[in-house]
Structure formats: structure tokens, C-alpha cells
Amino acid sequence: MDRTSLKNQAKAELNPNFSYYLRISLPALLLMAFATLVPFPSVHEVHRGEWHTLLRGDIFTVTGGRVNEYWQMWQSIVIFLSLLGVLLMIGVMFAMIDGLRGRSDHQFSWLQMFKIFERGEYFLGSLLIGLLQWVWIFLWMFLLIVPGIVKAMAYSQAQWIYRDAIDSGQPIGYTEAVTRSRELMSGHKWDYFVLLLSFLGWWLLELITMGLASIWVIPYRSMTLANFYLKLTEEQA
Predict the structure, then answer these.
(1) What's the whole-number average pLDDT of the chain?
(2) 3-class DSSP assignment, residue 109
(3) Angle between helices 120-143 and 145-154 in degrees, nearest 10
(4) Cβ 68 vs Cβ 43: under 8 Å
(5) How distant, in Å, are the alpha carbons of 41, 57, 60, 69, 72 from that of 64?
(6) Which of 153, 151, 155 is nearest to 179 (CA)?
(7) Percent of the chain at pLDDT above 70?
(8) What is the reported pLDDT for 87?
(9) What gap in Å lies between CA 213 and CA 204, rounded to an integer?
(10) Residue 76: which pLDDT band, with cuts at 50, 70 and 90?
């Protein structure tokens, strides 16, 4: 699969409609940025049974028994925001796939920011398929790292397959979506891996700019990956 063509086609869709795609991506980008940048409190014991926690320059005193509770609450908030951001970004990918297929008028509406909630099947399917992916990839990673990475790529198209099945009026199960993704990616996992590697320079730019470049990079990368899925389905057809 020609990476240059994939990226050029993605830019051809993204560039003239960048304002539209940026606006529908904004909630997802902000949530993921906040979850990444939110400072975890530093905790240290100052007296026996008494701890100080430093957060944004302010010092709070907590008892030893509340330290674990405090950390668990903080971690739960970050995990929730990260999950919500990922789900919203899946909805953005749905919109990008529609755009590449010529099914979008690119007219912004607030509801398009939350496309993942447009239908209950989109939200529930994406959430449960993501959970299945996480469990299976974790189990593979538990054995060996490389097989886990391979399986992550094999399962990577499941949400798009599931959504297309719903839209076609022929819904499938969650595990069936993962199975079809594995079949669709057969012989293409290396292409996908190399495509991801080709964004390494862009990831470095995001780090150097402390995330500011993500305003362009994340929509560009997402559009390219959406185009990758379309090319796979066209080859299979």
C-alpha cells in the first residue's frame, strides 16, 4: 500500500475542510490533552501519620489513611477523561471516513462533536470492542511484547467494521468485528506498522511544541488511518 498516496489523499480531504474537522475534534483533543497534562499530586510524609500533598503550588495536609484514597480518586478522574477523549475521537474518525467517502457536506454542528453518541450502538459497540481489544492485547503482551503489538494492529480496524455493519443494516457482534478486523488486516499488518512509524517525526514535533502541533497532527494522522481502512475495504470488495 502506497503511504504517500494515503497521506496525499488524506491531506486533500483535510486541508480544505480543516476548520470543520478541527472543530469536531476539539472536545476529544482537549480531554486527551487535559488527561495527559494534569499534574499528579506529590505526596510526602512530614510527621508520623501526617502527609502533605502538593498540587499546583498549594499544600494540603492529609492523614496517612487518606493518601491511597486521594491517589485513587485522582487516577480515576484521569482514566475517565482519557476514555471519554478516546471515544469522542472514534466518533471523529467516523466523520472522517464519511468525508473520504464523499458522504459529508462538512457543515459544522455541535452534535458532530459527539458523533459517537449519535446512535447507542456506536457508543456501546466502540466501548465494548475497545474493552475486548484491551483484554486480548494485554493477555498477549503478558506472554510476549511483540505478539501483543502484532495483535494490536490486527484488531485495529474493529470499530470501523462494526460501525459500517450497523450502517449497512447488517449488524454484527463485538467479537465478530474483532475477527473481521483480524481477517482484513491479514497481510497488511506490516503496512500498518510502517504507516504508524512514518508519523514518528510528527510525534516528536508534538513533544517539542508541548502538544501545540497536535492541533494539526492528530487530525492529519487520524485522516490517514481512516483512509488506510477505506483502502483495505476497497481491496477486499
Answers:
(1) 86
(2) coil
(3) 160
(4) no
(5) 15, 21, 13, 10, 14
(6) 155
(7) 85
(8) 95
(9) 10
(10) confident
The bridge status of strand 42-47 relative to strand 50-55 is antiparallel
Three cell numbers written together for 146: 511483540
Q: Where are the alpha helices (DSSP H) in the chain?
A: 3-14, 18-37, 64-100, 120-143, 145-154, 158-167, 174-184, 189-197, 200-208, 214-236
Distance CA 28, CA 84 (A): 8
SS3 169: coil
pLDDT digits (tens, 9 = 90+) for 176-234: 999 999 999 999 999 999 999 999 999 999 989 988 899 999 999 999 999 999 999 99
Which strands, in side-by-side order, build the sheet including 42-47?
A: 42-47, 50-55, 58-63
Residue 39 DSSP code: P
In angstroms, rounded to a whole number, what is the distance separating the alpha carbons of residues 9 and 35? 31
Angle of CA points 126, 130, 135, to nearest 5° = 155
Q: What are the domain boundaries of the chain?
A: 3-27+89-236
Round to whole Å and give the CA distance between 110 and 36.
Answer: 25
Residue 146 or residue 55, greater confidence: 146
Q: Give the chain's length.
A: 237
